[in-house]
Every structure is written in C-alpha cells, then in structure tokens.
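INFO  loader      accepted 1 record
INFO  loader      residues=459
INFO  predictor   begin
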Amino acid sequence: MKILILSKYFAPEQIIAAVRWTKISKYLSKNPDVKISVVTEKRNFDKDNDLILKSLRDDLLEKDMVYIDHYYEVPLNFGLKVYHYFRNKYQSSKIYDKPSNKVLYNKSGNIRENIRKTIYLWIFDFYNVLWCNAVKGYIRKMRLSEYDVVISTYDPFWTHMVAHFIKKSNNEILWLADFRDSYASDFIDTRFFYQRHIRQIKKYCANADVVLRVNDTMPTDTPAHIPIETITNGFDPEEKVAPQKPEKFNILYTGTMYHFNNIDVVCRAIKELVLEEKMIKDDVQIEFCGNGGEYAQRQADKENALEYFINYGMVTRCEAMKKRQNAAILLQMSCNTKRFRCEWTGKMYEYMMSEKPIIYTVSGNIPNSMPSRNMKLLGGCCYETCRHKETYPILKQFIYEKYREWKESGQISITRDEEYIAQFAYPQIADKVYRLIEKRMKKNGDERKTFKENSKEGD
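INFO  predictor   done
INFO  writer      dumping tokens
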C-alpha cells in the first residue's frame, strides 16, 4: 500500500500541527505493506532574511523521518517568490490581533480594520492558488498511478485542491481529506469569505472518499454524501518520560496564548491563597513557555501576581517536555462559544502523557464544556468563566490540595482513567486509520467490480 501525504506541516518543523501526520505516518509505516511519501512546502530552518520565514527544527520529530520513504519539498517558483516578498512586507503591518496572530473579523468594529483583514484573507486565498499550481507542476513528474491512497490535510487549503486534481486524473486512488481545523469559520472569516470558503470546500472536496476531522463537533462543511470519520490527535508513547518531583510548586503552561485565554484566574487564586497564608510565597511559580507570553504577563500584572510569573518565551518541544516532567500542575486554556466549541487540543494529548494534574480554564458564554465534563478522567479540574461562582472555589481548592500534598511529601498524586487515555496513543490512532483505509479500499474495489459486471451485462 503506497500512501501520498500532502501537508504543509510535517517533521522536522517544530509546530504542533506537524505532529499529527508525522506520528500517524510513523506507526502506519510499521505495517510491512505500507510505504509513505510526503509532499510539503519548502521550509527554511537555517537562513535569516529569506523569502521563506525561518522555522524551528524539532529534534524529536526529526527522528521520525526515518519512517518516511520519500520526502519532497516543493521549491518556490517565480510567482511564489513575488508573493512571499510582498506578503512578508504586509505581515509586518499591524493587521494581527495580538497575541494570537489570528486575523479576527469584528462585525461591529472598526471598518478600516475589517477592510485590512479582508485584504489579508484575499492574500491568503491567493497563497492557496499559487501553491496549488506549484505543487501540481511538481507532482506531474511523479508516478501518481503507483499510489493507492492520497491524504490531504488542512490547513492550508491547497492540500485539498491538489488532492482534488490527483483524484480527477486517477479516480481509482483513495482520497482521505483531513481537517485539523475548520476552513470556513465565522469566528475568523468576513461574511463574504465565510460563504466563499464553504463553496470552495464543496467544490474541491466533492470527490473525496472520506473526510477526517479531529473531533466529533467540528464542522467540515463538506458535501453531505461523503462519510465523515473522527481521527483525533494524540501522543506518542515512545516519547514518554517519567514524571519527576517538582522542586517548586510550579503551575506550567506550554503553548500559544490566544486573545480569549485567561491565565488571570490562576494568578488570582495563587495570590489569594498566599494572602490567606495557605501557601508560602517563595514556594509558588506560574511558568509560561510559548507565544504570547507578554499578554499572559499583563494578565498576571493586572492581578498583582507578577512576582509569581515567569515568562520563558519560545522553547523547543524537547525543552517543553522536560519542563512538564518537573512541573507540579499543568495548565491549559481555551474558550467555549456557539461558534467555537472547546475540545481536547493537540497540546492536551502531550499533557496526558506527562502524568501530571491538569487545570483547564475555559472562557466563553456556553457552560458545561467538554473539558468540564471530562477533566476528572484526567485527574484534573476545570474552571469556566461563565460559571465563575461555581467553578472558581473548585479551582482554588484543587490548587490548595495539591500544594498541601507537595508540601508534606514532595509528591503530587493523580488518579486517572488509563483506559480512556490509552485511546489517544498514536499506535491506536494509526491502527484506526489503517483499518479505515483497508475497509474503504475494499468497498471501492467491490463497487468497481460491480460496475464492470453491470456494464458487461448491459453490453
């Protein structure tokens, strides 16, 4: 079975989006009949001031590249060189909503800002067209007829556009269209682009055999006749490290700080517990690793808890894993609204592997989020902004109880549902993908056989 994966984010790039198909590919390739090829954009790991923005190299993911049979990086053609030059200049302007770098559409906000954000969406749309043409030109040199399966993963959308092209030229190939995120989003898009993106999905994904998504609630907006399967993100048990005793009572966050995240409630709880003399000031730290640390720091300052806050900035994934290994409690943050449903994030699966207590803070106006219903399975607790009076005392008590354990024994206990967590290990996830491919290939083969038999009878 020869599989072709179209993905912008793949090893050895240090980004959470690269983990998904790098790890699934790793465990798929342990089946002796599976051979995997990857087509991705040309990346820049070493140079400064290049047209391609510099990426960080993930040493752990780089080790997994031995499981890939062929790895193709599509270079920039002339059109892409021009595009990258002007896009890099445009990105230097303040069109981003700090600290998340997500372009958000404010329906009732400043008209000038919304125009600028609309321009950005046009630029990103043009990016997909350019990369689609570049990749199509590149893969024409490959023997696409040798592949049994093509897997395209959004984002960006050019991966689905190229898979659509491959499927049209070779209908017998099995196409799995994977959505790590929603392409059409009224949370980010302008009204025009929201409808445009839905039309693009229905056009380019119309001949996909199966649509994959990362959770059961995520809308894909794909044509109704295409079956949808949930393939979650997960963790690699081979990367697991033994949890260590925390030297300090440190609450650690690793990841990106978005505009809707709220670390302030944890800062407030720590500050109050110290003032109530339930915790010793010098014992406690709130540590941040990742993008948006300045925003988190401002939240800590607002709660007069800056003395407990440490911003380490960007660290490698390997360094982040070591910090989680020595943490007292891990912190995750998200939001839950009608437009943006809170689910387990890619980072949460790495947290599961760490065997540490977890606090999940959820902003937004929709109560009883998925984390609030399931955090006990992970040995943690969940705070929801819209249920502050109910959940804040639980959060504060949770921190205090774990602190008392650490103070008395140096250890912090955790009771988890190991069976629930085991389903998110990448060997199990890859096995699910493999069985899905086998099942669908058999079904497609049977359908072609029936079609040929019916054609002969008609003759």
